[in-house]
From TrEMBL:
Annotated protein name in UniProt: Lon proteolytic domain-containing protein
InterPro entries: Lon_proteolytic, Lon_Prtase, Ribosomal_Su5_D2-typ_SF, Ribsml_uS5_D2-typ_fold_subgr
Recorded GO MF terms: ATP binding; ATP-dependent peptidase activity; serine-type endopeptidase activity; single-stranded DNA binding
Species of provenance: Vanilla planifolia
Pfam families in UniProt: Lon_C
Positions of transmembrane segments: none
GO biological process, any: protein quality control for misfolded or incompletely synthesized proteins
Length: 96
């Protein structure tokens, strides 16, 4: 939701190949999630190439079979500022 609202407010597009899930505190800290395997498989089925997961879930992702992780760029974050950079950092395009 935060990224969607920032995209709307700043008129900047979010990367199209990006998927993320989780919750963020009011101070920007990223909280751990459940269902890493299911969310990774769902992202692959949707032809997503880049996933952002909470840093606390790195171990869950590392335990997945190689064929589930294959072809994905996965980033592990612990603060929203890291998500902002991944979602908008190299995206200088504005919405029309």
């Amino acid at each position: 939701m935060i990224t969607s609202l920032l995209s709307l407010a700043t008129k900047r597009l979010v990367r199209k190949d990006l998927a993320m899930t989780g919750e963020v505190t009011l101070t920007g800290r990223i909280l751990p999630i459940g269902g890493v395997k299911e969310k990774t498989i769902a992202a692959r089925r949707s032809e997503v190439k880049t996933i952002i997961f909470p840093a606390a879930n790195r171990r869950d992702f590392d335990e997945l079979a190689d064929n589930v992780k294959e072809g994905l760029d996965v980033y592990f974050v612990d603060d929203y500022s890291q998500i902002y950079e991944l979602a908008f950092g190299s995206n200088g395009h504005s919405q029309s």
